[in-house]
Design goal:
The complex is a heterodimer of chains A (222) and B (442). Chain A is of the alpha/beta class and 222 residues long. Chain A has a domain of 61 residues. Chain A is built from 7 helices and 9 strands; from the N terminus they run E-E-E-H-E-E-H-H-H-E-H-E-H-E-E-H. In chain A, the strands form 2 sheets. Chain A has a 6-stranded mixed beta sheet with strand order 5-6-7-3-8-9, with helices on both faces. In chain A, strands 2-1-4 form a 3-stranded antiparallel beta sheet, with helices on one face. In chain A, strand 6, helix 5 and strand 7 form a beta-alpha-beta unit. Chain B has 442 residues and is α/β, with parallel strands linked by helices. Chain B has 2 domains: 242 residues, no CATH class; 102 residues, abc type-2 transporter like domain (abc type-2 transporter like fold, 3-Layer(aba) Sandwich), CATH 3.40.1710. Chain B is 67% helix and 8% strand. Chain B is built from 17 helices and 8 strands. Chain B has a 4-stranded mixed beta sheet, sandwiched between helices. In chain B, helix 6 runs antiparallel to helix 9 and helix 7 packs antiparallel against helix 8. Chain B is elongated and about 120 Å long. The chains are: A alpha/beta (222), B alpha/beta (442).
């Protein structure tokens, strides 16, 4: 496999919902070791772009290109799990769907790594923070090479944030990549090496994390 | 297939975790089915009919020599209606209010005309407007028919007295005048004693023929009065509540409610829980997701349908009801439950993708299920368009399948036809649900 070929690429990808354009045509490439932050105000199109990259949404135009055999993990902004199943049952179900060879063990491993309760109570009864942890844990099933995380640290306590970034750092170090949506400038500075800033469905800034400073963020959110 | 099964297993687990919901959703359609049976039983209930007596009917009336106790006679002949004596004004008022469905008026001079035996007296019937007026009309006609039969018997008996007088001879009375009749039998005896001339022999021959002919008068009069007699025998069959028809309706109504609501609700719930995007990105295709819901509906229909059939069967066996439960038809019923559940589940899935949200989908399914069921209950020969519409929905075919498999001596052609309908409708609704499932991703 040529390393020149990106892991994931968006070619002129756009998305409309009825008459509303959520995302204008976007060109984007994700390569090994990348840490790409998607910044921008609410409704800018960050979540739509992540869902398109994950394959959860079909583009209205353009296409998403994935390196053959690439495994992608995705954690949407709103937790996506079955409320009547426990955390372990959710993890086991998605592990089986992701094709994990030992789904029970994979579920137990992630329960431990994300410090999730192993009780049989429904996940709908979990705290907001625990539901977000479960949401993130599901994204790491199937041993993904690219993780797409939509505002991943919202509702996480500092210790859980630290553990998440550690895990993501390890993934990038092993040739994987991270794309995450955030509005937190500090997270961009610490965990991203590139930034794509969106506004009204368009990429209005694309550059290194170092170039994306507070003045640009202030302009974006103005 | 494995992924479809995983979603199916998840739904079954979720269902098991909602026993209260399951109990309510099971009890509700069973209650509806029983209400439908009760409403259907209304067809044989007694309508309230006013009797307006403007002739001041006496306690007893003697007609054609036979004495009738008026109230007892009315009670005996009005078994199918609840006959209440009312004044003319009260009858009008209650007819307008709908408290009585008809008013039968006995006009002045009714008994006198009846006793005269020359003209037919008339009763006046006024019917309310409404859907059951034709049934009330039939029951009022039946009431008058029963009365006429009793009077005919009296008339025939009275007329036969005169025929007997002509045959046997003796004293008779007409319009208060007494007279003596020689009679054919005595005439024949007299003729035998006379010198046997050719004329006497001719007369003897005529009298003999006349006796034979008049001897059959009674049978002839009864035959003319009733060209066709009805012979009633008491059936030892099972009650309506335990009949195969009610079993079939209960099964069809119950699984229609449950499968439509569960398939619609559970498909839309995938979007409500925000999981559909996760699944659709290659884990479970939209087609697999729709068919998982169809399988869920089929499984649900099988489990609950069998439970209902077993409950009926146990009651029938314990009660030693005539005919017993057709246990040998259970495999056929299993096939029907799976097919009907799947077909209805596909319709439910279509409702789910159109409604998009679980609560809306459940509400829409509930709103849809009522007309689907009631369309299927309307006899197509009564309202043909209802029959055409219900032919395009799985409920009617489910009912016919269950009815044939439980009831008919040779069910195969009917079962095959209904199975084909269920498969085709299931494929159409399932296909449409698959096409519409993209809406859930938006």
């Amino acid at each position: 496999m040529s390393s020149a070929q990106p892991l994931l690429a968006a070619h002129g990808v756009s998305r409309r919902f009825g008459k509303t354009t959520a995302l204008e045509p976007v060109e984007l490439e994700i390569r090994e070791g990348d840490g790409l932050a998607l910044a921008g105000p609410n409704g800018a199109g960050k979540s739509t772009l992540l869902a398109l990259l994950a394959g959860a949404l079909e583009p209205s135009a353009g296409g998403i290109e994935r390196r053959k055999g690439l495994r992608v993990g995705w954690a949407p902004q709103r937790p996506a799990q079955y409320g009547r199943l426990s955390a372990r049952e959710n993890l086991e179900l998605f592990a089986r769907l992701e094709g994990e060879h030992e789904p029970e063990q994979a579920a137990m491993r992630l329960l431990d790594e994300f410090d999730l309760p192993g009780k049989a109570s429904p996940s709908a009864n979990l705290s907001v923070g625990n539901r977000q942890r479960l949401n993130l844990a599901i994204a790491f099933l199937g041993r993904p090479q690219v993780v797409l995380l939509d505002e991943p640290t919202a509702a996480l306590d500092p210790e859980q944030r630290r553990r998440l970034w550690e895990r993501v750092g390890a993934l990038r170090s092993s040739g994987g990549a991270l794309v995450f949506a955030t509005q937190n400038l500090e997270e961009i500075e610490r965990h991203a090496d590139r930034v794509a800033a969106l506004r009204d469905g368009r990429i209005v800034f694309s550059g290194s994390a170092g170039e994306y400073d507070r003045s640009q963020a202030d302009t974006l959110f103005a | 297939m494995k992924r479809t099964f995983l979603v199916f297993r998840k739904d079954a687990l979720v269902l098991r975790r909602s026993p209260l919901l399951l109990a309510i959703l099971l009890a509700y359609p069973v209650a509806i089915a029983l209400l439908v049976v009760l409403v259907a039983s209304y067809g044989s209930s007694k309508p309230r009919v006013a009797l307006v007596d403007e002739d001041n009917l006496p306690p007893t009336v003697t007609i054609a020599g036979k004495r009738f106790h008026v109230d007892r006679t009315i009670d005996e002949i009005s078994k199918n209606v609840d006959l209440v004596r009312l004044s003319p004004d009260e009858a009008d008022r209650q007819l307008e209010d709908g408290k009585v469905v008809a008013a039968v008026t006995v006009p002045p001079g009714f008994v006198a005309t009846l006793k005269g035996m020359i003209q037919s007296p008339k009763v006046e019937v006024e019917l309310s407007h409404g859907t059951i007026s034709s049934r009330v009309n039939q029951q009022v006609q039946a009431l008058v028919y029963s009365l006429n039969r009793r009077l005919q018997r009296a008339y025939i008996g009275n007329n036969l007295q005169y025929v007997t007088l002509i045959l046997q001879g003796g004293n008779g009375t007409v319009l208060g005048r007494q007279f003596n009749v020689l009679g054919l039998a005595r005439s024949e005896r007299l003729l035998r004693r006379m010198p046997q001339t050719p004329q006497v022999r001719q007369l003897e021959g005529f009298v003999h023929d006349a006796r034979l002919a008049l001897a059959n008068t009674g049978d002839a009069m009864r035959a003319v009065a009733h060209p066709i007699e009805i012979s009633y025998t008491h059936s030892r069959g099972r009650t309506r509540v335990l009949s195969a028809e009610v079993q079939a309706y209960t099964l069809a109504v119950t699984i229609t409610f449950l499968t439509l609501m569960f398939a619609a609700g559970s498909l839309a719930a995938e979007r409500d829980e925000n999981v559909i995007g996760r699944l659709a990105r290659g884990l479970v295709s939209l087609g697999q997701l729709v068919w998982a819901k169809v399988a869920l509906a089929a499984g649900l229909a099988l489990v609950l349908g069998l439970a209902i059939a077993l409950a009926f069967g146990v009651v029938i066996q314990v009660g030693n009801v005539t005919g017993g439960e057709p246990w040998e038809r259970l495999p056929l019923l299993v096939a029907g439950l799976l097919l009907a559940g799947g077909s209805l589940g596909a319709l439910g899935a279509l409702i789910g993708v159109l409604a998009k949200e679980a609560r809306t989908a459940s509400l829409v399914a509930l709103l849809v299920v009522m007309p689907v069921v009631f369309l299927g209950l309307i006899p197509p020969e009564v309202v043909p368009p209802a029959g055409w519409a219900s032919a395009l929905l799985p409920f009617t075919h489910a009912y016919r399948f269950f009815s044939a498999s439980l009831w008919e001596l040779h069910p195969w052609s009917q079962v095959a036809r209904q199975a084909a309908w269920l498969v085709v409708l299931g494929a159409i609704f399932g296909g449409l649900a698959r096409l519409g499932a993209r809406r859930l991703l938006a």
